[in-house]
């Protein structure tokens, strides 16, 4: 993207429709827009002071101030910043008033089509002024540096006017040559310090300079009173009128320069090596937070090319899709860095394909010897894999704790339930609904409620016992596709016929190493969950797919603990109520359920535990009111033994 087309614009406008129209017409012209709207005076003051803008576009009539205030306030802060007034209900003769106040242009809203051309013109003029100011500052600073550097770098100059042969040496040249300041300057004295071969060569060069206007540069050695010196000799001839001309030259003592240049090059190589080969992503920013450089790791970690974000504001461009909490932390870290304070933060980052990454970030400043801040640095360490592993480990710890709990008390609790169920069964057999005893008739609903509660308790204990047996399961090689067809045949006979079922299971056997009972638990649980989610859906649908995938070409690359092998991917998708973002991370927690009294909260945790035990995993993607997709990954076996 042409950096000249990038535009930070503040639009002072109380009409949202007009704001959108201005943004749209500029974008259609080819501008890459970052725009903010200010409607009230307080908003305008905050944005004009807190942000860096390329141009201001303002209406005249505003709720608690007007265009005159906008122009005058902008000119106080930055006299060169262009302000364009776009308004209605004012005669075009009013344009002279706005221009006298300092506005760059006045346009009626009916002529908004002209706005991109005006913006382009004023933007170029503004950027030219900024460039000229920078150039002037650099020139003034350069003169000062030149004066100092001549002394520091041992650069002497001389001048010879012909035909008079009037000669002038600078003081630094006296020092380089080792002559006293009272010595009469003659170029023959300089040539006498040369080695014989170089002396003969200089004579030829000097004679050629006397014949024509040209320049010559060479490295020679001078035998001065303080020792041999390696110098850079530069000569230039300039001819005047009346057969008069001069030769101007410099002699630069570079005796120590070779070692210095070597050190500089070595330091540059070290910097580039450390910068580009660092395991951490590094962004070099200016004091406004714009990206100057980013290293190779940053390109790979953030999946952004350097030319695309170079010159853009880091937080608004790179982290634009991050959550508000991360953006607040980054903004605060930038402010502290501008105060020469370091700051460490944890932030999330969203990739273009929706994947989430996590980074430990450090903000700090780079200063010169006087302590003046030159640049801001953001170092970001990718800890996505660590976060994923920690979450997986936490989940496995929950499952392990539940398994220990189940093994310790489930059997004993089941023994307590057995006589209770027997007593209730006895009462049911002894007390008939046709019994005329009034007390018995009043007790029957209570007995029925106790019976149902005991059945639910027994079911819960059975689920917990299932948990405790995950590690003791007996695995064998089986065809996942065949088992899936069998489960679907069984569950379809007892589920609602209103649900439309779509299957894409292919024709290839899907061999995996698993416990058949656990496979049944996985498939039946997923189907029952989908049926429950479709209770309130008008046209309920379930889609089940089965396909073989490669690790390198799947989303498993970002899971962090999966093996590099082939997997059978089993997809369960429904168009039901979906899962809200605030609870989706809890669905694999033991005893967490959204079914109320109809669920135990152990179905999905059991599936998760079984999948991890097999070396696979289960991933979920859901949108409220759109549906849910569960993707299960089973390590694939090539043949059936």
From TrEMBL:
Occurrences of domain Response regulatory (ranges): 8-124
Concerning PROSITE patterns, the annotation shows: HIS_KIN (PS50109), PAC (PS50113), PAS (PS50112), RESPONSE_REGULATORY (PS50110)
In what residue span(s) does the PAS domain sit? 267-341
**Any idea where the PAC domain is?**
341-395
Q: Which keywords are on file for this protein?
A: Phosphoprotein
Q: What residue stretches are annotated with the Histidine kinase domain? A: 408-638
Which Enzyme Commission number(s) are listed? 2.7.13.3
Q: Which reaction does it catalyse?
A: ATP + protein L-histidine = ADP + protein N-phospho-L-histidine
Write down which residues bear the modification named 4-aspartylphosphate: 59
The UniProt entry, under Pfam families, shows: HATPase_c, HisKA, PAS_4, Response_reg
InterPro entries (UniProt xref): CheY-like_superfamily (IPR011006), HATPase_C_sf (IPR036890), HATPase_dom (IPR003594), His_kinase_dom (IPR005467), HisK_dim/P_dom (IPR003661), HisK_dim/P_sf (IPR036097), PAS (IPR000014), PAS-assoc_C (IPR000700)
Per its UniProt record, what NCBIfam families does this chain match?
A: sensory_box
PANTHER family xref list: SENSOR HISTIDINE KINASE, TWO-COMPONENT SENSOR PPRA
Q: What is this protein called?
A: histidine kinase
Q: Could you tell me which species this protein originates from?
A: Leptospira vanthielii
């Amino acid at each position: 993207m042409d950096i000249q087309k990038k535009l930070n614009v503040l639009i002072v406008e109380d009409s949202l429709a007009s704001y959108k129209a201005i943004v749209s017409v500029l974008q259609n012209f080819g501008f890459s827009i970052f725009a903010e709207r200010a409607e009230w005076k307080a908003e305008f003051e905050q944005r004009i002071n807190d942000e860096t803008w390329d141009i201001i576009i303002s209406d005249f009539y505003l709720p608690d101030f007007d265009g005159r205030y906008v122009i005058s306030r902008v000119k106080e802060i930055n006299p060169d910043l262009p302000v364009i007034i776009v308004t209605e209900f004012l005669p075009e003769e009013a344009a002279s008033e706005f221009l006298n106040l300092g506005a760059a242009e006045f346009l009626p809203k009916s002529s908004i089509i002209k706005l991109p051309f005006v913006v382009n013109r004023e933007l170029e003029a503004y950027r030219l002024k900024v460039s000229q100011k920078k150039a002037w500052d650099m020139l003034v600073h350069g003169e000062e540096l030149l004066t100092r550097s001549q002394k520091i770098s041992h650069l002497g100059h001389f001048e010879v006017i012909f035909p008079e042969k009037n000669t002038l040496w600078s003081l630094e040249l006296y020092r380089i040559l080792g002559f006293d300041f009272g010595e009469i300057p003659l170029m023959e004295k300089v040539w006498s310090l040369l080695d014989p071969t170089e002396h003969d060569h200089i004579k030829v060069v000097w004679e050629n300079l006397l014949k024509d206007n040209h320049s010559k540069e060479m490295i020679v050695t001078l035998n001065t009173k303080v020792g041999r010196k390696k110098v850079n000799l530069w000569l230039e001839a300039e001819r005047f009128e009346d057969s008069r001309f001069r030769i101007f030259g410099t002699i630069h003592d570079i005796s120590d320069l070779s070692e210095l240049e070597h050190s500089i090059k070595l330091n540059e190589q070290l910097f580039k090596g450390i910068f580009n080969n660092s395991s951490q992503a590094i962004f070099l920013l200016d004091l406004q937070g714009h990206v100057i450089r980013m290293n190779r790791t940053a390109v790979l970690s953030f999946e952004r090319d350097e030319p695309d974000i170079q010159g853009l504001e880091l937080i608004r461009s790179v982290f634009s899709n991050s959550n508000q909490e991360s953006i607040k932390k980054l903004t605060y870290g930038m402010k502290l860095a501008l105060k020469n304070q370091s700051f460490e933060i944890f932030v999330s980052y969203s990739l273009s394909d929706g994947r989430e990454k996590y980074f430990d970030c450090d903000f700090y400043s780079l200063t010169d010897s006087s302590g003046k801040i030159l640049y801001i640095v953001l170092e970001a360490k990718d800890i996505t894999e660590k976060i994923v592993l920690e979450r997986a480990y936490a989940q496995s710890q929950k499952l392990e704790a539940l398994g220990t709990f189940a093994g310790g008390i489930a059997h004993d609790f089941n023994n307590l339930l057995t006589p209770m169920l027997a007593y209730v069964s006895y009462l049911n057999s002894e007390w008939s609904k046709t019994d005329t005893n009034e007390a018995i008739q009043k007790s029957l609903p209570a007995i029925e409620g106790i019976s149902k509660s005991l059945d639910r308790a027994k079911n819960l204990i059975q689920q917990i016992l299932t948990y405790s047996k995950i590690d003791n399961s007996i695995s064998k090689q089986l065809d996942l596709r065949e088992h899936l067809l069998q489960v679907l045949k069984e569950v379809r006979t007892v589920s609602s016929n209103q649900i439309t079922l779509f299957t894409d299971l292919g024709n290839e056997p899907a061999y995996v190493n698993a416990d058949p009972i656990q496979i049944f638990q996985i498939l039946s649980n997923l189907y029952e969950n989908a049926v429950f989610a479709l209770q309130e859906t008008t046209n309920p649908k379930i889609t089940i797919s089965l396909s073989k995938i490669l690790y390198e070409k799947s989303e498993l690359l970002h899971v962090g603990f999966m093996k590099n092998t082939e997997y059978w991917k089993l997809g369960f998708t429904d168009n039901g109520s979906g899962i809200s973002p605030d609870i989706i991370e809890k669905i694999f927690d033991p005893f967490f359920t959204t079914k109320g009294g109809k669920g135990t909260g152990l179905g999905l945790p059991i599936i998760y535990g079984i999948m991890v035990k097999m070396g696979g995993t289960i991933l979920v993607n859901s949108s409220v009111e759109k549906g849910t997709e569960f993707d299960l990954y089973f390590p694939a076996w090539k043949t059936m033994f």
